[in-house]
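Tutorial, part two.
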Amino acid sequence: MCLRSAYGQSVELKLNLELGKVYPQLMQSKALVIQDINGQKINIDVTLGGRLTYLVKSVSEKDYKMDVQYKSLSMAMALPQGSVKFDSEKKDKGDAFSAMLGEMVNKPFQITMTKIGQITDVKNIEFLIDDVLSHFTELPAEQLAQLKEQFLKSFGEEAFKASFESLSAIYPSKPVAKGENWEIKTKLGSGAGMTADVMSTYTLSEINAKSHVIVGESIITTTDTYLPIRGMPTRYDLSGAMKSEIVLDKVTGWVIEAKINQEMQGKVYIKKNEKLPDGLTIPMVMKNSMLYKNQ
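Running the prediction step on this input gives:
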């Protein structure tokens, strides 16, 4: 982060990354989805873990081009019918999903990110997903198509951009002083196919010897029309809030630690279709806590 006392006690918060350097990121997300389907409470608890690296390939006045790689991926799910765990480091040929996560690691895709954390381009993710699935041609074509749809929702261009910008698109467009706040609008994505508008107010809360601390409060509102999810036209009507505490390295501006908590509630609407002739309305609560570190 470039820090200059350009306006009295104000400092300029932005990324100041070095060409050829690798910037790491550790991520853990815990999500709880509570649904009420025809009077029956159904809880789904999902924990995702990932280790990523960002290699700066070029630097311009406005942005960075970077190679991104997953170094490890894991997923644990607690469902009404039982629990399952998947891990990219698991060496079990009988565990196809873990094997697919394993195929995702150490394969770069490219992003362009501005110096205030906005991602303006993502390349080669769909190619990477196609390559992953090409190792599992023994699976039925219909199952492969469903897996590709799920991988795109979880790891595709829009999903990656929305997920990463909830952490990175936080920097003010001008120098700020301690206690000063600014607003940023972003999109929130979900592996379930949901998207939402996020209006955030961030505040520079602390200036320390080696870091700056930003706190944020956000309002989240879904933006979806009906979209085909599992072959059924589905629309999310949810709203809620998010709170963030983000620690930036004073020299590079890179996020060295972040805690983000979200909670949304509302209803999911499924239109009448062959599988559900009467359609369905599902009350839903979604809670998500995310922890990021740089090592």
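The mean pLDDT is 89. In part three we will examine how such features are distributed along the chain.
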